[in-house]
Write a structure and sequence with these properties.
Layout (H helix, E strand, L loop, with lengths): L1 H24 L1 E2 L1 H14 L1 H4 L19 E6 L2 E8 L6 E3 L12 E3 L4 E4 L13 E3 L4 E4 L13 E3 L4 E5 L12 E3 L4 E5 L12 E3 L4 E3 L2 H4 L11 E3 L21 E3 L6 E2 L13 E3 L4 E4 L3 H4 L6 E3 L4 E2 L16 H4 L2
Pfam family, one: LRR_14
Main location: other
InterPro entries: Leu-rich_rpt (IPR001611), Leu-rich_rpt_typical-subtyp (IPR003591), LRR_dom_sf (IPR032675), LRR_N_plant-typ (IPR013210), LRR_R13L4/SHOC2-like (IPR055414), PGIP (IPR051848)
Length: 330
């Protein structure tokens, strides 16, 4: 019995030493330590006070830096998530972020970042979520963003991006959420976006986009998973093509405040789960087909500011659609 206890205790000590040995040798990759310290130097005091110690992943007595998530890969720890938002960061996009090659999530939203997104962003091959909305970022979106093949969520709304929407976004096969709302984009919406098989939410509202919806959906079988389409507050012209009814998963169609015209096609009322349809402040005419008023899911049909014939009535009480973060971030 004594021999058994000694043997068991010895084994436990050996196991403990092995665990401690792994912990000792499991250092944070020098590349990531250097990058985070460069970011720390560029972000200013609002972040620095919460980033204590030499190792961003923690070093024994000190925890990992706030907003930094690490994971173990082999003998090293690497930074996989960086979330520093709503702390009034001022200055250019920290280029050192693009040295964190194992990042899967980058969230710098609701700050005061300026300047362009650097083309080096294309180095983050494992990135799944990129959230830069509510900043003051400018210039064009670099085409290198199309190299982020694992990206599922891209939030660039409420900035000052300009130029055309890059066709390279169509190279992101896993993309589900694309938010480009309230920027300064011009030109036509690239029809190539329709090839994104997993895209569920496309928000291009409040820009300076031109062209027609027909151009957007010209690819056969386009947007097979799309649920929410926001094209409001642009300069779109032409009518609503009957082919739009082929987007059978559509739930929200927001076309308000454009220069569109023509009649509302009956086929639109046959989209099975269409719930919100916003046509207000365009140049639509004719009548609304009765099928819309019998639609089992349609809660709101807003038609003010058009040239519809007398007797055409809206459905529901119009309100600005306000989606919470939880509706589209997760």
């Amino acid at each position: 019995m004594l021999r058994y206890r000694v043997s068991t205790g010895f084994s436990f000590v050996i196991l403990l030493l092995c665990v401690l040995n792994v912990a000792v040798h499991c250092k944070t990759l020098k590349r990531d330590v250097k990058a985070l310290n460069e970011i720390k130097a560029s972000l200013g005091w609002r972040v620095v006070y919460a980033w204590v110690g030499d190792d961003p992943c923690g070093d024994g007595d000190l925890p990992a830096w706030s907003g930094v998530t690490c994971s173990t890969q082999g003998d090293y720890r690497v930074v996989t998530e960086l979330e520093v938002y709503a702390v009034s960061i001022v200055g250019p996009f920290p280029t050192a972020v693009t040295n964190l090659l194992d990042l899967t999530r980058l969230d710098l939203h609701n700050n005061k970042l300026t300047g362009p997104i650097p083309p080096q962003i294309g180095r983050l091959k494992r990135l799944k979520i990129l959230n830069l909305r509510w900043n003051k970022l400018q210039d064009v979106i670099p085409p290198e963003i199309g190299e982020l093949k694992k990206l599922t969520q891209l939030y660039l709304s409420f900035n000052s991006f300009k130029g055309e929407i890059p066709r390279e976004l169509a190279n992101l096969p896993e993309l589900q959420y694309l938010h480009l709302h309230q920027n300064r984009f011009i030109g036509r919406i690239p029809a190539e976006l329709g090839s994104l098989r997993n895209l569920r939410h496309l928000d291009l509202g409040d820009n300076h986009l031109v062209g027609t919806i027909r151009e957007l959906i010209r690819i056969e079988g386009c947007f097979p998973a799309l649920r929410n389409l926001y094209l409001n507050n642009n300069y779109l012209t032409g009518g609503i093509p009957a082919q739009l009814s082929n987007l059978t998963n559509l739930e929200i169609l927001h076309l308000s405040h454009n220069k569109m015209s023509g009649i509302v096609p009956l086929g639109l009322a046959h989209i099975p789960r269409l719930t919100y349809l916003y046509l207000d402040y365009n140049q639509f005419s004719g009548r609304i087909p009765d099928a819309f008023y019998k639609h089992p899911y349609l809660k709101e049909l807003y038609i003010e500011g058009n040239a519809f014939k007398p007797g055409v009535n809206p459905i529901g009480i119009h309100k600005v659609l306000e989606l919470t973060d939880s509706d589209f971030l997760f």
